Structure formats: structure tokens, C-alpha cells
């Protein structure tokens, strides 16, 4: 049951023509202030004022990303059901809303073209790397099988890249967030998730050494071919453990130790893979319980899936 003051504040924040339009748009896509300004045909200060009011009321969520700020319909605040109900009442055949949605498509289409151009620039190096280990499909299948069929409440994918892991696990995840430090990759991921219709999956700009998340926020965390870019892998694992719920699981997909020295320069790899003992040491130092790793032998690179779990909170175990 909502507090009356909270509910009234949310209703007041939504009760304006432009703000209802903003709710409808942000329910369909994560949008920056500049994109919303283009769609609505209003000034940036005016749009920003409306957005500020709705964020304060809990109707929208605000996510800074470099020089830009993105907004989306809230799915965590106490008034999130109200925001969703209001959007459901808005008919797409309304003349104003129909025009907004047409402009939204133009914006997201342009975004997709920019994202594709960025990915085209790096696609060749990605393909070269893929040919050096077992097919990605085999690794993804093993990862899904290891995670199991149980529904995941909150997923965090660290170093999400194109958002592939979010797509892979979308059917068994209630809510997922992908973190990446590269704006270009975030644009690719955001476009991929939008085109796949995965509104419960989001991406955010963030640092794997300082995750912008609260302690014990996720029951599943993944890192797919990310850890070898780190100067301090132990710290990355410690930070992941910090945001892992009691009993939650961490999966690290990466290369086994190898001697392909040229990859430091050509692919900016900071580490030439890892041994089982190194990963086990990182896990235990972070207070996690390691599991038996899986191995996928390739030429010249072998990929491994290491996993660990956080200690369960037996005091709150209803069983």
C-alpha cells in the first residue's frame, strides 16, 4: 500500500501533457535529454525540468553516461506500478502520441546506424579472436546449462560489450543490467536489446573496479571474456563479490593461461589468461566458495568457465 503523500506526488508529477508524453516515450526506450528534445520539439531546459520532476517522484529513473544522461520508466521505485499503469492507458492512435512514436522510431533507427558503424570498425578484430578458440555457441550453451533453469531475480553482466550475455539469459531473468566503460559498446548493446524487445534488460556506463550498485544487489553476476583486460583481477572479483547476494553465484568466462604474447599489444589484453589456482585464490580472497571449472580446448586459446558462490545467509533461510 502506497503512502498517500508519495502517491499524490507521483500523480501530480504525471498530470501534465508533456510529462505523459515523456512517460510513454521512456517506457519504450532509454532516451537521452537531447533525443527527447528532438522528439518533443521543445527546448532542452523545459524538457529537463519535466524530467527532474518525474525522477523526484519516482516515475522515471536517471542514468548518467559520460556527457549524456539517459532516462527510462522506473521499474524499482514504489510508484513504478503507477507509472506502468498510466502508460498502459495511453493509446498509440492518439494523434500527438502517434507523432511522438514516429519520431522515436527515427531516433532509434539513427542510433542503430551509429552503433552499427562503431561495431563495423572493430568487427574484424573480434572475428579474428573468435577463430582462436572454440565456437562461442558452445561456450554459451555450457554457461546456460551451468546457470540452470531457475529464474534469476537480478543479473549483473560486467563488461557487457554488445549485451550478448543479457540476450542469452533474458528468458530466465526478471531484471538484468549490463555494465561497460565504453560508450560505443553501450550504444551497440542498447540497440541490440531494443531490437530484441528486451525491455527488462538495461545497460549502464560503469567501472568494474567501482560498480555503481549497492551491496548484495544481484543473485547472478557474469563476466564474459573481460577479466583479462584488468590490471587488478583480484580487485574486480572483490568488487563483484561485494554486490553479490548471499547464496548468489558468479561466473567468469575467460582464457586459460597461454603464451600468445602479441595479444597484449594487438588486443590490449593485460593478462595472458589465468590458471585455475589464480582464479581460486581470487575467489577465496573475496569470501566466495569456488566450484569445479569447465574447460573448452581451442587452438591456440582454451576457454574456461570458473564459478563461485557467496556464502548463504542461513539466518534468513526459510527452509
TrEMBL record:
NCBIfam families to which the protein is assigned, alphabetical: HTH_metalloreg
Protein name in UniProt: ArsR family transcriptional regulator
CDD domains documented for this protein: AdoMet_MTases, HTH_ARSR
InterPro entries: ArsR-like_HTH, HTH_ArsR_DNA-bd_dom, Methyltransf_11, Methyltransf_Superfamily, SAM-dependent_MTases_sf, WH-like_DNA-bd_sf, WH_DNA-bd_sf
Pfam families: HTH_5 (PF01022), Methyltransf_11 (PF08241)
PANTHER family (alphabetical): METHYLTRANSFERASE, N6-ADENOSINE-METHYLTRANSFERASE TMT1A
Residue ranges annotated for the HTH arsR-type domain, each copy included: 1-94
Molecular function (Gene Ontology), one example: S-adenosylmethionine-dependent methyltransferase activity
Amino acid at each position: 500500500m502506497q503512502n498517500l503523500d508519495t502517491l499524490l506526488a507521483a500523480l501530480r508529477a504525471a498530470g501534465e501533457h508533456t510529462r505523459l508524453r515523456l512517460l510513454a516515450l521512456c517506457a519504450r526506450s532509454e532516451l537521452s535529454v537531447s533525443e527527447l528534445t528532438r522528439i518533443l520539439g521543445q527546448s532542452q531546459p523545459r524538457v529537463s525540468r519535466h524530467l527532474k520532476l518525474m525522477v523526484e517522484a519516482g516515475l522515471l529513473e536517471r542514468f548518467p553516461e559520460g556527457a549524456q544522461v539517459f532516462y527510462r520508466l522506473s521499474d524499482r521505485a514504489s510508484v513504478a506500478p503507477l507509472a506502468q499503469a498510466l502508460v498502459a492507458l495511453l493509446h498509440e492512435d492518439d494523434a500527438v502520441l502517434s507523432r511522438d512514436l514516429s519520431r522515436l522510431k527515427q531516433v532509434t533507427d539513427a542510433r542503430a546506424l551509429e552503433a552499427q558503424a562503431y561495431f563495423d570498425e572493430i568487427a574484424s578484430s573480434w572475428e579474428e579472436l573468435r577463430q582462436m578458440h572454440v565456437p562461442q555457441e558452445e561456450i554459451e550453451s555450457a554457461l546456460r546449462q551451468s546457470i540452470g533453469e531457475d529464474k534469476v531475480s537480478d543479473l549483473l553482466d560486467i563488461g557487457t560489450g554488445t549485451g550478448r550475455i543479457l540476450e542469452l539469459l533474458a528468458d530466465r531473468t526478471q531484471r538484468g543490467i549490463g555494465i561497460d566503460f565504453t560508450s560505443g559498446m553501450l550504444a551497440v548493446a542498447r540497440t541490440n536489446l531494443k531490437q530484441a524487445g528486451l525491455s527488462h534488460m538495461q545497460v549502464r556506463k560503469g567501472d568494474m573496479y567501482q560498480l555503481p550498485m549497492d551491496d548484495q544487489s544481484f543473485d547472478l553476476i557474469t563476466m564474459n571474456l573481460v577479466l583479462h583486460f584488468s590490471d587488478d583481477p583480484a580487485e574486480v572479483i572483490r568488487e563483484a563479490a561485494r554486490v553479490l547476494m548471499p547464496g548468489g553465484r558468479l561466473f567468469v568466462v575467460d582464457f586459460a593461461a597461454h603464451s600468445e604474447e602479441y595479444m597484449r599489444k594487438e588486443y590490449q589484453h593485460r593478462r595472458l589468461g589465468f590458471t585455475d589456482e589464480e582464479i581460486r585464490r581470487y575467489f577465496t580472497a573475496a569470501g566466495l566458495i569456488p566450484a569445479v571449472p569447465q574447460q573448452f580446448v581451442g587452438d591456440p586459446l582454451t576457454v574456461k568457465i570458473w564459478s563461485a558462490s557467496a556464502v548463504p545467509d542461513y539466518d534468513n533461510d526459510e527452509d
